[in-house]
Amino acid sequence: MAISDEQVLHVARLARLSLTDDEVGKFARQLSSILEHAERVMALASEDVPPTSTAIPLVNVVRPDVVGECLPHDKALSTAPESEQGRFKVPRIIEEPR
Amino acid sequence: MNDLWRMDGATLAATIASGEVTALEVADAHLARIEATDPDVHAMLTVTADYARAQAGRVDAARAAGEPLGPLAGVPLALKDVLCTDGIRTTAGSKILGDYVPPYDATVVQRLAVAGVVTVGKANMDEFAMGSSTENSAFGPSRNPWDLARVPGGSSGGSAAAVAAGQAPLGIGSDTGGSIRQPAALCGVVGVKPTYGLVSRYGLIAFASSLDQVGPFARTVRDAAMLLQSIAGHDPRDSTSVPADAPDMVSGLNEGVKGLRIGVWTESLGDGTQPGVRDRVREAADRLAGLGASIDDVVLPSFEYALSAYYLIAPAECSSNLARYDGVRYGMRTEGRDVVEMNSRTRAGGFGDEVKRRVMLGTYALSAGYYDAYYGKAQKVRTLVIREFEKAYERFDLILSPTSPTTAFKIGERTDDPIAMYLADLFTIPTNLAGACGISVPCGLAEDGLPVGLQLMGPPMAEPLMFRAAAAFEADRGPLPDPPLWT
After folding, report:
1. Mean pLDDT score of chain B
2. Which is more confidently placed, A43 or A60?
3. Mutate to test the interface with B, among A1, A18, A22, A70 (most CBs of B within 10 A)
4. What is the pLDDT of residue B420?
């Protein structure tokens, strides 16, 4: 299945990746060829085969609801590109009403 | 003793325990070896000399105080730069984490410290463990100690190259589709992908969470088994960690292969595999037969589709895992007018080509309208691969194949062709999809003079048997030539 430039741009928006024009063309070609290879999968997978999401049959792993050791606040913030008043700082998300 | 770096881990630990040499002298000998060889090999992203000397000092102090030492106490190790180390830069081979200093240790790192293992450096890798050559590292490729014009394999190529170059007798890697076994094969060392859930993933920078597993490199099967033993076992901080004691992988190493049933994966020895690789692996099967194993062919037709399924499942999981690199809590940030632009510019500048390619592929495979066609179908193929393994293990205890279809390729040879690169993992991927275990053991040199790896695969938790067969093969095979870098 061939992937168009428009589809590449749509997926890039979903994945939060800004791409150059050269990258759009290159990824369209490369993703098309990888998917063509992957489509061989479909011939094999019939309706009656259940999917496997993980190889180890563990479900609903829980621990006692007790507070354990946590990363101290300052250590957790130490890796942030920007922080203020003990919080992670990001550019403005919501405009103030004028 | 100038040649401490030539010794294997078990021998070094015994030499330290007897008081013949200190752990600090052992650490310094390996740090000197790194200094001498790493300008050529580029196995290390960060040499952790101070950390190593402090750890070695603790081993020496414990010995002086008469405290019992662990079986690998004082032995140097190269740690793949994908495991978080408290206070030591951890990059995952990516520009986006180029200055990242984790505020905590991975469970594996804690267990290595408890065992007295001495970490001498953080090893190079393909960015976020995506690749088969280390050429996707944002910090430049590592080089194969057997031929510096060739790749060491990947993604854990730095750890494999460090062990092959004598920079450390032990290494730690992570294996999502072959990233420990394939570089072990290409560098002529031992590498193990443990059963999924045997080793904690807490503090392992995630690539594809249903496939990732941490495992050992070494120059002997015994060292690899001892190292895995020291990091294996349940961890409450990893919900996919198997809630049971790790099996004893060391005490049965000398029990031999008499009576073991070993299947030879027929399709792995076809025309697509380099003739010299086929020859060495067939000889290895004959050697195991000579030691008393019963050898027969096994046909595994659905494995042909495992690679395709893997290249949908792994990118899908990676696109989800790597969403966390958004310039907010850690890693680099490139400013933008708003949050979305900041996120998108940060990721565009911080990720390399292969990571972008897989994030895009995974996002596409999970997007509305395509989920069932790609990701859903790939998960069904995963079921078929598991069923085929289960059927095969009714007849066999272990399955044998080459680790990789070829020996080490030249740097640059496959960088423009993603599918050619992906084929390096053709024989290793089924084990990851099945959550099972596999080992690569050196089995000689091919017609081009480069190392060949023999892969032995077993069902989940078959590590004791796998190590036993590998050790029997290794002992019968005898010593192999050293890499040119050793002379």
Report:
1. 96
2. A60
3. A18
4. 85
Question: Which residues of A are less than 8 Å from B328 in CB distance?
Answer: 80-81, 88, 90
Asked if A54 and B435 come within 8 Å (Cβ–Cβ), the reply is: yes
> For position B38, what pLDDT does the model report?
98
Q: Would you say A32 and B357 are in contact if contact means Cβ atoms under 8 Å apart?
A: no
As a whole number of Å, the CA-based R_g of chain B is 21
Q: Tell me the C-alpha distance between B256 and B23, whole Å.
A: 33
- Residue numbers of A between 45 and 64 with CB closer than 8 Å to B: 45-46, 49-56, 58, 61, 63
> Catalytic residue positions of B?
80, 155, 179
- Contacts for B39 with CB less than 8 Å, ≥ 6 apart: none
Residue B153 DSSP class: -
ipTM greater than 0.90, yes or no?
yes
Distance CA B350, CA B333 (A): 8
Helix (H, G, I), strand (E, B) or coil at B263: strand
Cβ-in-10-Å burial (0-12, 13-18, 19+) of A92 comes to exposed
Token representation of residue B254: 């000398």
Using one digit for the tens of pLDDT, what is the confidence trace for B398-424? 999 999 999 999 999 998 888 888 889
Answer for the pair B307, B427: CB distance below 8 angstroms, yes or no.
no
Query: Which has the closest alpha carbon to B90: B139, B134, B130, B34?
Result: B139
Q: Which CATH class for the A5-44 domain?
A: mainly alpha
Q: Are B423 and B405 in contact (CB under 8 A)?
A: yes
Where are chain A's structural domains? 5-44
Chain B interface test: which of A8, A40, A41 (most B C-beta within 10 Å): A41
Distances from the Cα of B274 to the Cα of B302, B307, B407, B421, angstroms:
22, 19, 8, 15
pLDDT category of residue B1 using cuts at 50, 70 and 90: low
Whether the CB-CB separation of A66 and A37 falls below 8 Å is answered with no
What confidence tens digit (pLDDT) does each residue in B172-227 have? 999 999 999 999 999 999 999 999 999 999 999 999 999 999 999 999 999 999 99
Q: Is residue B257 within 8 Å of residue B288, measured between CB atoms? A: yes
- Angle between helix A21-38 and A5-14 (nearest 10): 100
What is the per-residue pLDDT across B13-66, written as a single tens digit (0 to 9) for each? Answer: 999 999 999 999 999 999 999 999 999 999 999 999 999 999 999 999 999 999
B150: exposed, middle or buried (Cβ count in 10 Å: 0-12, 13-18, 19+): buried
- The radius of gyration of chain A's CA atoms, rounded to the nearest angstrom, is 23
CA distance B437 to A50: 23
Nearest residue of B to residue A61 by CA position? B239
Rounded Cα–Cα distance for residues B405 and B341 (Å): 43
B138: its two tokens: 């944002």
DSSP 8-state assignment for residue B128: G
In chain B, what are the domains?
Answer: 4-257+467-486 (3.90.1300.10)
Angle at B101 (CA atoms; ends B99, B103), nearest 5 degrees: 155
